Amino acid sequence: MLRLWNAIRPYAWLVALGVLVSLWVFLERPPEQRKNAVVLRLVVFSGERDQVFWRLIKNGDPKAGIQGFETAHPEIRLEFIKAGEGDKVGTMIAGGDAPDVVNIGAGEQFYHYKAANVMRDLTPLMSDADRADVERDFYPVARTAMMADGKYYALPWNLIPFILFYNKRVFDRFDVPYPTADWTWADYESAAKKMTKDLNGDGYPDVFGANFAQWQDGYYTWIYENGGRVVSPDGKRITFDDPKVVGAIAFLHRLSRIESVIPNDKNRPKAIGGQGLFSQDKQGMLGPFGSFYIPQFRGEDFKNVDWDIAPTPKGPTGIRASVVATSGFAVTSQSKHPQQAYELVKYLCGHEGQAALAVSALFVPARKSVATNTALMNPAGLPEHMSAVLDAVEKGYAFVPPWTGRRWGDFQDYLNGELGDFLFSNANPGDTPEKVAKRIAAKGNAILAEERTERAGTPLPTGPIAKIAMALAAIIVAAWAARVWVEARKSRTRGAEQAYGYIAIAPWLVGFLVFAAGPILFSLLLSLCRWSNLSPPSQARYIGLDNFGYLLGGKDDLFFTSLIVTAKYTLWAVPLGLVAGLILALFMNTNIRGINWYRTIYYLPAILPGIATTMLWKQMFVQNGLLNYALSGGGRADFHRMPDWLLDPRFTIPAILIMGVWGAGGGMMIYLAGLQNIPTDLYNAAEVDGAGGLAKFRHVTLPMLSPVLFFNLVMGIIGTFQVFGSAFVLFGSDGGPKHSALFYGLYLYRKAFEQFDIGLGAALAWILFVIILAFTLIIFKSSPLWVYYEGSKEGKA
Amino acid sequence: MAKPLRWRRQVRPTILHVILVVFAIPILVPFYWMLVASVQSRDKTDQYPPQWVPVQTYWYAKDANGVKRETFPPIKEEGRRTQVRFLDEPAKTWVPTASVQKVEKSEPRWKNITSVFAKTGDTSSGNVEDAPFRWSDIWKSESFGRYALNTLVIALLCVFGQIISCSLVAYGFARMNFWGKNALFMLMLATMMIPGQIYAIPAFMIYRSLGWVDTYIPLILPAWMGGAFFVFLFRQFILGIPLEMDEAARIDGSGPFRIWWEILLPMARPVAVVAGVYTFFGAWNDLFGPLIYLNSDYKRTLALALTKFSNAYGQTDVPSLMAASVLMMVPVLVIFFFSQRALQQGLVISGVKG
């Protein structure tokens, strides 16, 4: 046995590799494969209720009377791509690997997809009967949201109107009559006033009258009810300074800051967002708010809440409005099976698909015949006045939020930020509704003007460019090879060594040429273009240095915000990391018993999967989480008075710093290695000279360790400038409250993958590279002043 | 100037122990909470003050026949009646409020762990535990067991690739003399500074044109092409090995690649451990690569699956998420504990000097 082992031992690695490769091949094999099937790939979201829907579609459900799509179309096989992430779909489309069918939201997404020609025009695929059916049975607001230039680019699927949720128990408690369909703003206001109560006399209300959606759709609803409009009818001007818009803002301001019936920074220093207070019977009304909370409130988690819904209250002149978010299914232009893909879209948006939507209780189906079927929509009779949801679409006061132009997202960001500051915190004490509205309008018009003056750009001759690039690359490689050959000719031994050398570095060299040099040059080219990664590269337009001009010319507030955030973080995180790591290493550099255990413990946070530890911290950072419990000395202070790490803009950067210090063990290992490289003679010599502990540290440890410090400094700065993962998990791509943690990496991601502006994203990446390079060079140049290299120039990388 | 012996032998180590233990607490407590949360019942994870032991709540009520049975939490109360729903019974019933009983037991809910192991993590609340757990489900196409195997195979292939390619490239840079060597070496170090975002889209287009999207190749291949940092470590190490070793082997008739494979690579074992372990961690934890390149469910990696615990509304199933995180951490922990000394040694020997 032993002899056998000895014989195969040298090849054990080969056996292991073989096993791994065969496992690999096995794992890549699809579990079941039907031959000769048309494969349709569709992107689906992966939330729980979405899962229910897709299961119903795939397998059918006898109760709902649905036959699965695959049963009805045996020649088609569905492949589900689970991705809610914009970057995933964007990258697939850009790479020419688009799925056949995509779910598409009205407004922003529809605009970008239409502009980039992602969606196929469905009109030619529709039969007359299809058309008639679509026009008859779909709510007009949903249908028109999926149309452009009179053509169907998608079929509508679902609707999410804004409604008013109310908590019956709170209403009963203060003897306030429930909201009705006749309610006006005045009723809303007086009810909210009656229900806002400071019960324990601490000066803060314990029950609030109301809260409403604090994002653009919520504000639009109020503005429309007051008769105002955000954009002029021709879509060319922002009319946010209109007196009717100002009136709506003034009303909201009165509710929040004067009457204090809505949780804000002043009356409730740390507000609980969303449905938190509402479901705890501490808030009477939630609305106008998206009806997407209905399936949630029906669920197990909210079974103790006694709630119902009503239509949005009417404005002062009797106008009612409700924003409707709607989405549909589109066939991509890249799809190779448009006819079958259209069949799938028709099925998903047909009676069967819509019935599945109703059963899964995901949202409201866009089809009248299904949406009004109470047995499907509301079998348990919860909420009681379910009709309030459909009122908006049935009675025709629903509207799709406006969307005009490529940079509309920037305008919405600005609007949300300004109104959030004005209505819920006290950022600019001198502000009035007029001033705020004027600022928002001015900003919006500046953004629109900026977009109008954008250079159209010239098409990139991609073919010739590719050829020239290839030719140039070939010339460089050939010239390099010739030079090496000349060198090799000088003597036989040297010739062999040239060849061996290049063979040895071949893995890196090939990788560099194909997967690094090419992409780097390509992205440099992209930074000079306007290109949406939803369209093929041939759609890219050369616009010179406009991207850089736009960013550096101060036209983009968020760019500077992200620079400042990143700089602030670097300024704190790098020194903190250096010092904490060094102190830890000094403690660890002993031989006391159990030191291995200590080292493992302190190093844990650095090696454990970042995604897992960040998820853990996300749980601890919540206001009633572990961190505040510890900081308040074991819960001695009310957690409402403690920092709300993830939702309060003042604490987002400190939060991510705390997480960083917790993981400071990462740098420790390298310091430890450095410490162990210091010869003990030096310490002995210092002791002979009469040096104490501090003197030894100052005159031996620090100088000997300076190269390691240097290394960690450079790596630290490179790292902090590229922060992405942890911030993305903690704060999402908009960088948390008021963009207070909008790191450069997040901003880049947002521009390139969420707003599909790859050219600008590439420009951002290059600016980042230049910044990092500059810092690294400065550190390198200054290093002779403070870095001590033992003996020679050796080791200077 | 030497301190008294007693100071060195007893007092100093004791002080050190105290300091190290005190500072270990904030590091370990979150992990402890995580362990507790992973076997906690769902309604207890967001309680304040935090729960330090897993607690399960049971509700009982007497049914029409006066038999005490377990129910779901009460639905609503009206006067002296309470509406409840008994386990395994779809309909709601009214029972006397007095018969409703709440019992809390301190016990771990192992079901969290097992159900996570056999499930995809896509279901974000409620139905995760509906299905009975079967060990055979683990190898089904969509489960954490399967994802763990996927991740393991990818990570190990990366480890192989990284060690072989980096040591070979480093050998070329350290031992061979060829024209352009220094320029290429500097170029390699410079690539470390380029932000990854620059590559993402073009690299995807290249892999796509090669037909490699939704395969593991884009995740494994880069490891076989010599990562700059580990090439640097290997080079530093090989520079420290006396040239006489190579000469002796050459006189024995070994070719240059035999010298690399049979002499230098075995000697560079400490660096190989460093490169191997860190590559493993990197591949095990990587999120961006799998996110971009993998489409099929059954090919997912653990990190990717971990992000699916939040649903469309941003709600998270905390116990399942924590259970899955714990499962993902265990292999990393084990590998680190056993390779710790070798890692340390490897870093010392390769002499990271910037």
Structural class of chain B: mainly alpha
Greatest interface: A-B, 148 and 134 residues
Write down the Rg of chain A: 31 Å
Characterize the quaternary organization of these chains.
heterodimer
Terminal Cα span of chain A:
49 Å
Helix content of chain B: 55-70%
Instruction: Give the total of beta strands of chain B.
Output: 6
Proportion in helices of chain A: 55-70%
Largest beta sheet of chain B: what is the strand line-up?
2-1-6
Overall mean confidence score, pLDDT of chain B: 81
β-sheet strand percentage of chain B? 5-15%
* Low-confidence residue ranges of chain A: 791-797
Distance between the termini of chain B: 35 Å
> How big is the Rg of chain B?
28 Å
Put simply, the count of helices of chain B is: 13
Task: Please report the total strand number of chain A as a whole number.
Answer: 15
Main sheet attributes: strand count, strand direction, barrel closure of chain B? 3 strands, antiparallel
Low-confidence stretches of chain B: 120-132
How does this structure look, described?
- The complex is a heterodimer of chains A (797) and B (354).
- Chain A is α+β, with helices and mostly antiparallel strands.
- Chain A is 55% helix and 9% strand.
- Chain A has 36 helices and 15 strands.
- In chain A, the strands form four sheets. In chain A, strands 3, 6, 7, 8, 9, 10, 11 and 12 form an eight-stranded mixed beta sheet that branches.
- Chain A starts with a helix and ends in an 11-residue tail after the last helix.
- In chain A, 45% of the residues are buried.
- Chain B has 354 residues and is mostly helical.
- Chain B contains 13 helices and six strands.
- Chain B has helices at 5-38, 111-118, 144-175, 181-191, 197-209, 217-220, 228-239, 243-251, 256-267, 269-285, 288-293, 302-306, 318-350; strands at 55-62, 68-71, 76-78, 81-84, 93-96, 101-106.
- Chain B has a three-stranded antiparallel beta sheet, with no helix packed on it. In chain B, strands 3-4-5 form a three-stranded antiparallel beta sheet, with no helix packed on it.
- Chain B starts with a helix and ends with a helix.
- Mean pLDDT of chain B is 81; it is low at 120-132.
- The interface between A and B is large, with 148 and 134 residues.
